[in-house]
């Protein structure tokens, strides 16, 4: 059935890939973005498509539309961006959730919330399951994002309990792939860009901290399956790749795939940076039949090719990936 779908943060990295899939399935999509971190280049291929509509808007202000479904992805997702204006980040998470939930309540439509593995903080439980409450510093430099997302989850479940709203809350773990920004401060994009430029590769701490990286196509598939699932499945549900790797090993893998001459350099570890991060995706497997299919080597190859093309357009740099 053809639907009218609202995607907030639709010009962002994950949002733009999600819109491609939604339009490909025959839906009409309204993309809402204030372009604080989103990029018009992520959606420029959709301009002129009769099933696509773009609206510049900040979700911290009310919005009145008529749609069948809402995907709320609006929020800066990398520390360098969400710490640039931490008050605005909290407002985006909290006021944005309130405004989108209010719309969903008025329309009686299903709404998806892009939560995050950051709700687990620096976890004392490993791997992280959905019933773990987390270990989060409420007053640190990352709190605007961590606690903002936690509060958004609270709002979603209160609207569900109080108003019977159909909600879908996904905790998204580290995701990577084409359309990440060159200077977004995320570990995968940082390492790749530095390697392609043969610059020193910066690692914060000793590189022993671990992460789990999910390719964006797999993530979007998980989101769509979750949104289409039975209304009784509200989440929160972990979406991510359970394959764990240290940051140092990831950097060495990037150097190997790019053939770069870059050397590792070590800097002070940021405040509250988690030591370990790996999702338990047993719930997603059991309820959605979902698991990642793109391994890290293939995902890195495709992501490196993307950044190589971006850098080549920007400055004539071409490096074989």
Mind explaining what this structure looks like?
By secondary structure, this protein is α/β, with parallel strands linked by helices. It has 9 helices and 13 strands. The strands form 4 sheets. It has a 7-stranded parallel beta sheet, with helices on both faces. The protein has a two-stranded parallel sheet with strand order 7-10. It has a two-stranded parallel ribbon with strand order 8-13. Helix 1 (13-24) links the parallel strand 1 and strand 2. Helix 3 (86-107) packs parallel to helix 4 (143-163) and helix 5 packs across helix 9 (296-315). It is globular and about 55 Å long. The model has no long low-confidence stretch (mean pLDDT 95).
Short description:
The chain has 321 residues and is α/β, with parallel strands linked by helices. The chain has nine helices and 13 strands.
Q: How many strands, what sense, and barrel or not for the largest sheet?
A: 7 strands, parallel
Distance between the termini: 41 Å
- Overall pLDDT score: 95
Overall 3D form = globular
| Derived structural class | alpha/beta
Strand content: 15-25%
Count of runs of 4 or more consecutive helical residues: 9
Helix % is 25-40%
Beta-strand segment tally: 13
SSE blueprint:
Layout: E1 4-8, H1 13-24, E2 28-33, E3 52-56, E4 69-72, H2 79-82, H3 86-107, E5 110-116, H4 143-163, E6 167-172, E7 175-176, H5 187-196, E8 201-204, E9 210-212, E10 214-215, H6 216-227, E11 237-239, E12 244-246, H7 247-258, E13 264-267, H8 282-288, H9 296-315
Parallel strand pairs: 1-2, 1-4, 2-3, 4-5, 5-6, 6-11, 7-10, 8-13
Antiparallel strand pairs: 9-12
Helix pairs in contact: 1-6, 3-4, 5-7, 5-9, 7-9
């Amino acid at each position: 059935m053809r639907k009218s779908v609202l995607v907030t943060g639709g010009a962002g990295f994950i949002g733009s890939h999600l819109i491609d899939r939604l339009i490909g399935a025959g839906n009409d999509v309204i993309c809402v973005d204030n372009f604080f971190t989103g990029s018009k280049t992520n959606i420029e291929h959709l301009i002129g498509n009769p099933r696509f509509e773009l609206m510049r808007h900040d979700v911290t202000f009310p919005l009145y539309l008529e749609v069948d479904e809402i995907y709320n992805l609006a929020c800066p997702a990398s520390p360098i961006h969400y710490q640039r204006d931490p008050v605005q980040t909290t407002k985006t998470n909290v006021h944005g959730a309130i405004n989108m939930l209010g719309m969903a309540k008025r329309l009686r439509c299903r709404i998806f919330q892009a939560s995050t593995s950051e709700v687990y903080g620096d976890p004392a439980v490993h791997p992280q399951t959905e019933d773990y409450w987390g270990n989060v510093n409420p007053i640190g430099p990352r709190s605007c994002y961590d606690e903002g997302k936690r509060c958004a989850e609270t709002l979603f479940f209160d609207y569900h309990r109080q108003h019977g709203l159909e909600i879908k809350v996904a905790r998204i773990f580290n995701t990577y792939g084409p359309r990440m920004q060159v200077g977004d401060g995320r570990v995968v994009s940082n390492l790749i860009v530095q390697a392609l430029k043969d610059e020193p590769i910066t690692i914060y701490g000793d590189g022993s901290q671990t992460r789990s990286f999910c390719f964006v196509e797999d993530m979007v598939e998980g989101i769509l399956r979750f949104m289409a699932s039975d209304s009784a499945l509200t989440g929160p549900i972990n979406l991510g790749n359970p394959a764990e790797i240290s940051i140092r090993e990831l950097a060495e893998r990037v150097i190997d795939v790019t053939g770069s001459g870059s050397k590792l350099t070590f800097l002070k570890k940021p405040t509250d940076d988690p030591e370990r991060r790996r999702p338990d995706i047993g719930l997603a497997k059991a309820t959605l039949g979902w698991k990642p299919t793109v391994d890290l080597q293939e995902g890195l190859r495709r992501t490196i090719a993307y950044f190589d093309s971006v850098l080549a357009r920007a400055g004539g740099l071409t490096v074989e990936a």
